[in-house]
């Protein structure tokens, strides 16, 4: 075989190998898990365009994949008679895609929720709102981040154990007139929220999943917001939200984790403290 013939054959072989190696990556990139998630999480219920119902804000490129900020915001007009009953946050390519489901108190008028999540791969992130009309409405964003679910914890085991279940409640001043009943508050819970995909750097063994899976917030005994959480919620869960005060003097929080611990606290609304 001539040198030219060998060169041509090598070039063709390299081209075919390149195509073969590229195909899995292209197939992975082309694969869209969302239709399957609609079936698994929402029992294949119809999805309506949520662009005028629910907004989702996340950075296009995350600085830290283990603590990616996300804000969910109602876009319903003041004259709309419907209300949002629940919001489900789905991170499509995470190992456990359903990051959290938020149930909104019927009289609390929660219009905004912010938290922090882990993102494991470049992915679409969907926010699905269920309204009082029984319909589902979906919005999405695309986020470039990777490795968030397996990233080592920021705190060591001893520090995390000492802070387990500690809660803080804060309130923030708003621009509305002082007589306004709209409040903005934040709940922070000390908890490692281990994903089950993190490795102990000393033993080289995987740390078992251990996370807050339920959180209920009330003003006196009236529901404000509850969360069903999963491994995608970042270490030391943090929720910031708006709600309408019903005049209650006490704000209460109850959290449960996957090991059966129950954490409770309450604060004077006028003197939230720590």
Automatic annotation (TrEMBL):
The keyword Signal applies. Pfam families: SoxY, SoxZ. Residues 1-27 form the signal peptide. Residues 39-149 form the Ig-like SoxY domain. The keyword Cell division does not apply. Residues 177-267 form the Sulphur oxidation protein SoxZ domain. SUPFAM superfamilies: E set domains. Keywords: Signal. It comes from the Bacteria. NCBIfam families: fuse_rel_SoxYZ. This is Quinoprotein dehydrogenase-associated SoxYZ-like carrier.
């Amino acid at each position: 075989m001539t040198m030219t013939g060998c060169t041509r054959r090598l070039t063709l072989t390299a081209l075919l190998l390149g195509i073969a190696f590229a195909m899995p990556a292209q197939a992975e990139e082309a694969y869209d898990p969302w239709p399957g998630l609609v079936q698994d999480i929402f029992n294949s219920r119809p999805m309506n365009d949520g662009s005028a119902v629910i907004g989702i804000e996340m950075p296009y490129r995350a600085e830290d994949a283990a603590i990616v900020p996300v804000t969910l915001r109602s876009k319903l007009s003041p004259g709309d008679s419907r209300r949002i009953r629940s919001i489900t946050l789905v991170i499509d390519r995470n190992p456990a895609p359903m990051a959290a489901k938020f149930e909104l108190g019927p009289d609390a008028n929660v219009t905004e929720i912010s938290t922090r999540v882990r993102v494991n791969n470049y992915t679409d992130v969907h926010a699905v709102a269920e309204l009082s009309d029984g319909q589902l409405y979906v919005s999405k964003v695309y986020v470039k981040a990777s490795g968030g679910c397996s990233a080592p914890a920021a705190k060591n085991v001893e520090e995390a154990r000492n802070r387990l279940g500690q809660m803080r409640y804060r309130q923030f001043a708003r621009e509305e007139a002082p007589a306004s009943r709209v409040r903005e508050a934040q709940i922070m819970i000390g908890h490692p929220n281990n994903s089950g995909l993190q490795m102990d750097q000393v033993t080289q063994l995987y740390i078992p999943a251990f996370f807050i899976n339920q959180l209920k917030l009330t003003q006196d005994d009236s529901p404000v917001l509850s969360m069903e959480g999963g491994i995608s919620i970042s270490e030391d869960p943090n929720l910031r939200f708006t709600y309408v005060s019903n005049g209650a003097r006490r704000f209460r929080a109850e959290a449960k984790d996957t090991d059966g611990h129950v954490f409770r606290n309450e604060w004077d609304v006028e003197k939230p403290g720590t």
